[in-house]
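Pinned message: reference record for HTH-type transcriptional regulator YwnA
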Amino acid sequence: MLDTNPVVVRRTMAGLRKQGYVQSEKGHGGGWKLSCDLAKVTLRDIYIAVGSPALLAMGNRTESPECLVEQAVNAALQQTFDEAEKLLLSRLGDVTLAKLSADCHVRIVARGRKRKSKGHTHG
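Predicted structure (tokens):
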């Protein structure tokens, strides 16, 4: 589903385990499960636990550090990027895992109703 290298997934899960958000069990029926209070953990907490990767795909260019035009554009945009990142981190701090779980549950129920009304019996 993630379409990424398993090492990336293991590293990500290790960061979450280190913070006590998940735990793993080995063997048949094992795997990962949440081990935290969903009402207390936010998306910002998760972001920090996985190493605080870059939030914005767009950022300052550094292909030609000596280029005066590049320097001027970077200087003009830096404050905007900083403000956007600050706002995004703030909003991530407002979203708990409990909120996500509740929203997901509503969507699952709605999808089930939708499929039943269309005559589908399986996903």
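Pinned by admin. Summary line: The first strand starts at residue 22 and ends at 25.
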